[in-house]
Write a structure and sequence with these properties.
about 270 residues, 2 domains, Helix Hairpins, two-stranded antiparallel ribbon, mainly alpha
């Protein structure tokens, strides 16, 4: 199967070289990029968000691994500090003994007494020589242990900083993913709201029809009233003459002869 696939691939590559010549690589590369972009664009956004969330969640494994390394280094560093403390206490004691023997030898005694035992000057000098060599070796070892402790402390600090950075980055990415999820849901709501858009043209046509019907009814009603008030017959009776005296009396509210005499007197007075 693999051999067949290799042969097919080689055949396609050979065909591309034959068809496109020197530009075959460019055509193949461009085609690959377009196919990749098409596939990527066809993937739903929800799937991409879930994929990003899974990648961020898988950082837990790296965090656990680094945390385990940090915890182990902390334990070993603590043990090293205890070892250094013990070595320092022993080294300080050895230093005190060396200086004591050195001081005793400077007194130029024939014999020296320690812990109920008697020692010659030569024995004390030999013991001082051994103690001094052991002290120098222990001091060198102590310095190495301290340098080792400092180096491991720096490594521990760097590892702890890395773990904190990974945790902070993971939390930030989780917040960004939640933000993307909220935006995706907002887009879905906006897309769904487009389904509730009504056709205003139908409503406008209905309003227009109702207006036309109302106008037609009003016109019909006016025509009907005009037909009732319109007379096409010849008038047979003479129009009644207007009674001007009655109109004046009603206007000035003259109800009897006394009001008439008052009106006459007022007229004469105005004339004089």
């Amino acid at each position: 199967m693999i051999k067949k696939l290799l042969l097919v691939t080689a055949g396609v590559a050979l065909l591309a070289v034959i068809l496109f010549g020197r530009n075959a690589a460019s055509y193949v590369s461009t085609s690959y990029d377009r196919v990749t972009e098409t596939v990527r664009n066809s993937v739903p956004v929800e799937f991409q968000i879930d994929r990003a969330r899974n990648m961020v969640n898988k950082l837990d494994d790296e965090i656990k691994r680094c945390s385990k390394v940090v915890a182990k280094e902390e334990v070993e560093l603590e043990m090293l500090n205890k070892r250094i403390q013990t070595a320092e206490e022993r080294n300080e004691k050895d230093k005190t003994n060396v200086l004591r023997l050195q001081a005793d030898l400077s007194s130029n005694q024939d014999v020296y007494h320690y812990a109920g035992q008697t020692y010659t000057e030569s024995e004390v000098k030999q013991d001082l020589s051994r103690r001094f060599e052991r002290f120098k070796t222990a001091s060198a070892t102590l310095r190495s242990l301290c340098e080792m402790r400092d180096a491991r402390q720096r490594n521990l600090d760097a590892a702890s900083k890395k773990v904190r950075a990974i945790i902070a980055t993971q939390r930030q990415l989780q917040v960004e993913i939640e933000n993307l999820e909220a935006k995706r849901k907002l887009v879905e709501v906006a897309q769904a709201s487009s389904d509730f858009i009504f056709d205003d043209s139908k409503l406008a046509r209905a309003k227009e029809l109702i207006g036309q019907i109302r106008t037609d009814l009003e016109v019909t009603a006016k025509l009907a009233n005009a037909e009732l008030n319109f007379h096409d017959e010849i008038p047979l009776d003479e129009p009644t003459a207007e009674d001007i005296e009655q109109q004046v009396a009603e206007y000035f509210e003259l109800s009897g002869p006394k009001d008439a005499e008052f009106a006459k007197a007022s007229y004469n007075k105005g004339k004089e």
